[in-house]
Amino acid sequence: MKQTIAGKTELIRLGLDHCRSKVLLSAVELGVFTHLAAAPATETELRSALDLHPRATADFLDALVAIGLLSREQGFYQNTAISDAYLDARKPGYVGGFLIMHNLQYGKWARLTELLHVGSVTQDVRDEQKMHDDMQADPMRIRRFMAAMDGINQLVGPALAEKYDWSQLRTFADLGGARGNLSAELVKAHPHLEATVFDLPAVREVFDEHMEKLDLAGKVTFQGGDFFTESLPTADALIFGHVLHDWNPGLRKDLVRKAYEALPSGGYLLVYDPMIDDERQRNDYSLITSLHMMLISPGGSEYTAADCRSLMIEAGFAETDTIPLTDVDTLVVGRKS
Question: What are the residues whose beta carbons fall under 8 Å from the beta carbon of 274, sequence distance 6 or more?
Fold first, then answer.
């Protein structure tokens, strides 16, 4: 009987996990952690500073305490170690950009059942290219997306610098490389590398700002372009990081083939994403992320490392390899003969 009750409780808590998630997302949206990084504050002070209503504020803040993101002593709230390190917008480890983007997409999950019945929550898969084109027309959207990519890529850069052998390579290009966080990590770890970030021309301004901030201006170059319609940069290695899962399988195939054609003999294609394990049963994060991609994009989804290797082999790559990269990301490497 105890096991039955415990099981029921566990299921109920699982059903409420979306509520816990929203408490975190709203706290990031409101800037709670950034505000408290300056100094601890009482509930009254936080209500005033963040324009909160007295009815819900105490329960909201105490929920953050119970989750482990805030502590409370003698009526004063302050950040815990993890929220201070990663949720203060003024610190380099900030992952709030990704969480803010997810907060904007949160309502999409209300349409999961529709996705399961229909296969899509958008009207036309052709909207996929339109979403790509529209990015250049909205500077605010670009900045928001760049901040989100920084949050996602913070762990990937150091891992890729350490776990892949860069000693035999001289140049690389990060395709869809946003404002250059990944390239910056690789260049800092391996100073002999020459890096190019290839992204939409509208990204150049935020790229230049970010490289200046990192004191890497001139060390990582930017090439504006569209990887669907324009020639890819020439380099010893090309990288698609958190890119292929944005697109439908046909467009993924096109991009892998295009990278193969752009690489010199002996060149390498590196692809990383939160890939689904080949048995499709060990990694709930990648499977849930795949559903998320289906909800927010017309054709996006995650895929297995085996799927990625197959794309590479079909494109002509002679050798492929799979490397665990982070707790959630997998790297697949293809070598052109």
Answer: 245, 283, 285, 286, 289, 302, 328, 329, 330
**Which tokens sit at 139?**
């500077």
Nearest one of 93, 73, 77 to 27, comparing CA atoms: 77
245 is catalytic: yes
pLDDT in 10s for each residue of the chain, 337 residues: 556 777 888 899 999 999 999 999 999 999 999 999 999 999 999 999 999 999 999 999 999 999 999 999 999 999 999 999 999 999 988 888 889 888 989 999 999 999 999 998 865 545 445 544 555 556 666 666 677 677 677 789 999 999 999 999 999 999 999 889 999 999 999 999 999 999 999 889 989 998 998 899 889 999 999 999 999 999 999 999 999 999 999 999 999 999 999 999 999 999 999 999 999 988 899 999 999 999 999 899 999 999 999 999 999 999 999 999 999 999 999 999 9
The residues, any chain, with a CB within 8 Å of residue 270's CB and separated by 6 or more, are: 160, 164, 237, 238, 239, 240, 241, 331, 332, 333
Within the chain, strands assigned E span: 41-42, 70-73, 76-79, 171-175, 194-199, 220-224, 237-241, 268-273, 319-324, 330-335
What is the pTM assigned to this prediction?
0.87
Q: Which of 35, 102, 210, 245 is catalytic?
A: 245
